[in-house]
Amino acid sequence: MVGNESCVIMLKKIVKMIGIIIGSAVITLLVVGILFVNLSPEFGGKPTEADKTRYSKSKNFKDGKFENLNKANMDMSFKQTVTTMIDFIKGTPNARPSFNLPVEKVDSLNWEQNDSTNRLVWFGHSSFLLKLDGKNILLDPMLGEVPAPHPWLGGKRYSKELPIEIQKLPKIDVVLISHDHYDHLDYGSIQLLKDKVNQFMVPMGVGAHLKEWGIANHQIQEFDWWQETTYEHIGIAFAPSRHFSGRGLTDRFSTLWGSWVIKGRNKNLYFSGDSGYGKHFKTIGEKFGPFDFAMMECGQYNEKWADIHMMPEETVQAAIDVKSKITMPIHWGAFTLSLHTWTDPVERFTLKSNELNVEHLIPIIGEEIDLMTLTSEHMNWWKK
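^ that's the sequence the OP posted. Answer follows.
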């Protein structure tokens, strides 16, 4: 009897000790997490009261948050959330390339000296270097390895190298940012770029991140939807998309998101940023189109978040809506951020484009595309 009581007492002590250890571990993780979120520069800055007052004048800012023109349903049930987490943990076959992606190298000296040719280079995902009428424009320059606030929190880039190292990039006249998600706005890339950039043009609210990262006020221009400006002779307009924003746990919808129109002397371009399908595409086409070339989101989609990321078939329709003459699917080819195979976006896009006679272009990473001819020397490079 005494022996049994001793066992019970010992068992209670063990259970209590395990509880203390687990509790301490949870508290430690919480403290580390809070410190990481509050002290890590990757999370960016917060708007001042003056900023919030300025945002309140926007038609797209209500009750302290920015909102879409067409409501986007982003809510998942508890069951959907759990099953999605399990699916991500299990992984998807062919979620990443099984071979080294081909990457063409960009000659920085040749790029800098040749101002006569309007051209474009894709870095994978949604990042581009554009030479238009002699000006260098960077679009969503996420040039880091992992689209996350810490390398442990995301998967690595598919390609082992970039077409050109950030340090070797030419002087940049304008950087255009579509929104503040990590796969579009990268702290490390901005740190390496900031001393060679003249102007950062960003959605409302994103300027707070850049200021936190050491960018001077005079280098930052913030835009609301439908606002336009010129950089020397190049026309630039910020247009809607159907998406959301946020870099932390509590700042969703705190900054605006959108797409960009870039109009040179002879070429009119459209960059969709991230977006679910919506009526805004037709409005953009009517207001700013037709476009000689459009870079349209096509990747990281799922039926559970279809309102904020288009399906490939919708991408083709959106290209028709904006009146694009030649379209390139983007937001694929660099990172795995959803549950589809890595080639699903381009395969479905090309199938639907061919069905609807939509001209398209799918260059390899680093290939210099002449905007006058808009042709690629590579076909089906993603197949191995």
